[in-house]
Amino acid sequence: MWIDSHCHLDAPEFDADRDDVVSRAREAGVEAIINLPGHIDHFAQAKLTRERYGCITGFGIHPMWIAGPGGVSAREHIAVLRDWVEREKPDLIGEIGLDFFIPNFNQAEQEWFYVEQLKIARDFDLPVSLHVRRSQDHLLKHLRRIKVRGGFAHAFNGSQQQAEAFVKLGFCLGFGGTATFPQANNVRRLLRDVPLENIVVETDAPDIPPSFLGTMGSRARNAPEHVARIGAMLAEARGMSVEAFAEVTTSNVRRNFRA
């Protein structure tokens, strides 16, 4: 059995066939999906998705929604997020983090939102799901100052030293579609070198499609059913049986949450 540790099942790309998407995931051996909305306008749909499909659910404000076309979040949204967390009692805070790749990013504003959301995770004793893009050291700086319950560094592609720092802070590193491409040398090297107890499998569906859906950067729709095939490919890269890899990575997800 598998857990998709990072998915956006509430995304509009699934509006036409969400029931079928979940059914196919279950048939593929996916026992749970972590669903992570990225803006307060998405929280209501995420709540419905949780109620209908039993998703492990987070609430958070994604760094790409903080600045840029169509993605302006007011600082008052932090209070809205805190209210949702207090009322709905999610399983984690996410997707949150920093993205220093997007054009014209506002680092100070991103860091403000990130820090305030870490405080919410700390106050409610919740793990976090982190967006990590060219921002590893800045994420770590705040994690060392604001202690949270660990969680997941999504689509990790940093250095070995940075990976070790996240592991030391109790985080699992997420590997998905990118790691299925032979040319993704750094990600595949990390997959082999990171302690097995700190690896989780993800899709980021509908994004980051794996190699069997097209070339790297393809716009094909990813889906949680593919976590099983992705996981099998990651197991092969680690030199493990699929069954053993599935068992360990599923356990890695589960231990981040309160019993």
Distance between the termini: 19 Å
- What is the CATH topology descriptor? TIM Barrel
**What is the C-alpha radius of gyration, as a whole number of Å?**
17 Å
Work out the helicity level.
25-40%
Helix/strand/pairing category = alpha/beta
Spatially, the strands of the biggest sheet line up as: 1-2-3-4-5-6-7-8
Strand count, sense and barrel status of the largest sheet are:
8 strands, parallel
Strand content: 15-25%
- Top-tier CATH class: Alpha Beta
Number of domains: 1
Number of helical runs? Answer: 9
| Name of the CATH superfamily | Metal-dependent hydrolases
Overall geometry comes to globular
- E-strand count: 8
CATH architecture: Alpha-Beta Barrel
Mean pLDDT: 95
Spans of at least 5 consecutive residues with low confidence: none
Order of helices and strands: EHEHEHEHEHEHEHEHH
Give short descriptive properties of this protein.
259 residues; eight-stranded parallel β-sheet; TIM Barrel; globular; alpha/beta; 8 strands; 40% helix
In words, what does this structure look like?
This protein is of the alpha/beta class. The chain has a single domain, classed as Metal-dependent hydrolases (TIM Barrel). It is 40% helix and 16% strand. The chain contains 9 helices and 8 strands. The chain has helices spanning 18-27, 43-53, 77-88, 107-123, 136-145, 160-168, 185-193, 227-238, 242-254, and strands at residues 2-7, 30-35, 56-59, 92-99, 128-133, 151-154, 171-175, 199-201. Strands 1-2-3-4-5-6-7-8 form an 8-stranded parallel sheet. The longest helix has 17 residues, at 107-123. The model has no long low-confidence stretch (mean pLDDT 95).
